[in-house]
C-alpha cells in the first residue's frame, strides 16, 4: 500500500514538472530527461508526426551520453534508430486527424527488462507530454497576440491598464505606464488606479467598481467615459472603462480595462512605410510627418531646417502623389493609413 502511494506521488511529481517545464519556456528535450530519470531507461525517444497540408516528422532523444534532436529525419534513418532494440517499451497517442506522438523507452545495456507496470506509466507520461506541449503552444500564441496588440496600441498612442477582480493593476501598456509614472493625472494607490484630483478619483472609482460588478456577472452596460484633469495644467486625459468577462475561479485574470487617450500624444506615421505607400521621397515623408503632428508649414520648415518654399514644394508633391488638395485632408489620410501602425514588432522582436 505504501509503495503504491509512493509511486503515485512520484508520478504526480514528474507530471507536474513536465507541465512546469513546457509552460515555463522549457524544451521537450528537458522533459525527456525527466522521463529517463524517472524510469531508469538508458534512452528515451520521442517522435512527433505533424499532420497538416504535409506530414512532418520530428525526433528527439535523451540518453546518458547526451540527447540529440532531429527536426526532419528521413524514414530510413529514423527507422534504423528506433529499431535498434526489441526490448523497448512504446507508447502512442493522438487521433488520426491530429498530431501523433510516440514515446520509446530503451532499457539499460545489461538487458534487464522493464517491469510490466512501466507500459502504463509510459502511456500516462506521454499523454501529459502531449497535452503540456499543446498547452505551451497555445500560451505562446496568446503571448504573441498580446504583444502585437499591445505594441499596436502604443503606436496609436493609446494606453491600456488592466485590472483584476479586486481592482488591482495587473498590467499596463507602455503608453499607460508612462502616464502613470508621470503622476500627472493618474497614479497607483494601494495597488489600484487612482486619479490625482479627488473629485475625478471618486468618479473613476465608481466607474471601476461598476465595471468590476459587470465582470462578475451582473448585467452589462455601456463603457463608462470620463475625463481626468492634470496638475500640470496639460489637457485632460480621456478615459473609457470597459468590463471584461472574468471567471471568479481564475485568480489574476483581467476583469476591467481602462483605455486612456492623451490629447497631447498622437500616433505618428512611420516614414519608411509612408514612402512605400505613397511613393514619397525621404524629404517628403519628413514634411508629411511633421504636418501630421500638428505643426504649420512655417514650423515644419523651421524644424527641418529648410526654407518655406522648399517645404511648400514638398507639400505640393505630397498632394499630387496622395490625391488630396488640403492640409487637413493630409492629416486625416496619414492617421488613417497603415503607416500609423509603423514597424509594430512581433513577439520576441521588441527592441
UniProtKB/TrEMBL annotation:
Xref: Gene3D superfamilies: Winged helix-like DNA-binding domain superfamily/Winged helix DNA-binding domain (1.10.10.10)
Gene Ontology biological process terms in this record: regulation of DNA-templated transcription
GO MF terms held by the record: DNA binding
Domain of life, per lineage: Bacteria
Record SMART domains: HTH_LUXR
Leader sequence segment: none
Short name of any one Pfam family annotated for the protein: GerE
Database matches in InterPro entries: Sig_transdc_resp-reg_C-effctor, Tscrpt_reg_LuxR_C, WH-like_DNA-bd_sf
Domain called HTH luxR-type: residue spans: 277-334
Protein name as annotated: Helix-turn-helix transcriptional regulator
Species this chain originates from: Stappia taiwanensis
